Fold this protein.
Amino acid sequence: MGPASLPESGFLDEWAARLRQAADRPVVGIMLRGSHARRAATEHSDVDVDVLVAADDDRAVRTPGTTAPARPAGPYAARRAYLTEFDGRLVHVSVAARDVRSWVHRLGQPADWAFGLPVTAPARLLWAVPEWRRRIDLPVLCQPADEPRLEELIATLGKVAGAHWADDPVGVRLAAADLARLCPSVLRLANPSVRVVSRRAALTAALDLPVAPPGYRTDMLLCLGLRPADPAEVGAAAGRLVRGILPLVRPYAGEIAEVAGTDLAEALVDGRVERYLRQLGRALDPVGPVPRDTSAVPTPRAGEWSTVPASDAPVTGAPARSGGAAAPGPARPSRLDPAIAAKLRRTPDGLVAAVVRAHDSGEVLMVAWMDDEALHRTLTTGRATYWSRSRGEYWVKGATSGHHQYVRSVALDCDGDALLVSVEQVGAACHTGHRTCFFTDLPVSSPESTP
């Protein structure tokens, strides 16, 4: 079904007037939100309206025309639903009446549907009193990201394990779904910022985080109940998610400490959290083999890079090849823009050399390899992503070491077989701990000049 036209301004004006008259508190503003405000509605979409009513702080609120207080003041919320005729069809008008001060305060809180991600959702002011117009006439409603809730993530895995031990399949599924909704809030520490406009967009963004454990997308879908599986498989997926997230967020122990305290942050670094997860894992690991790769992200030694396997997100392009002659296209499936892919001149392994330099000084930091998909991820996430020839998997520089490379620009050379990647380097670029990989000077001699 295609998009539906936004109801005529007369329709919205009529409803704004009707809701003002029907309110049991003085109305200060009426806001249209949801799919109609985003201009993404279909003919089946609700018309979502927020009616913002006055708040008198600690004083009683008086109903117009009365002398006695109607009710004590304070945060207020009520919902009403209407079915009305529009353009020959019935339209569901969903109304949320809210205390205006608590409504404004709520914009400073994470959205409970956004998987911990920050929200920027379009809105449209239909009517407001002059003294409140400036504060609530917002073209978008912005809500912050949730804090990294690692402690709650671990506790929820305990609930999954407890339900599994008690042979409670419904409890396993409920707890696993809660756990999956927490994962993006923790992984956000290691990923580029992304904002969402709707619950559907939040799910897509949560599943497509570029820095994530092996099999992350599949395990998220299993835990959320969006892919069929028995309770044992769901519980095992929950365990893999949490175990895979730990090495990715270990470099961000400082941020974890600000939220959950220093003990959990220290336990994350010294291995106590992993020991605790192994205890829970004995109740969650499936008896039979799992038909997919569940290898953990390798824990790096000091100063060492780590690799992050490719996500399970759908991609297009040539199928993976195990060997053979060079092909004109990519060796692995990719979402790279075909116009860019056509300019690449690849090795027989489908790779292009990437020369990495500091964007401010021009200093050459390292040389690595990219295939089409690694280049796509680099261009679309702003994080330098490479292909490991030795391990046969993608890796994001700094995913576990904390030595991130934030991409400022990427240029392709005249032959199409090399890339120049300008980055903002955080920490050392070399796995030895040096700023650059090119720290060993070689002697250069030349024939003695003759007089």
Remarks:
- The chain has three domains: 9-143, 150-281, 338-425.
- The mean pLDDT is 82.
- Residues 169-187 form the longest helix (19 residues).
- Residues 9-143 form a domain with the Beta Polymerase; domain 2 fold (CATH 3.30.460.10).
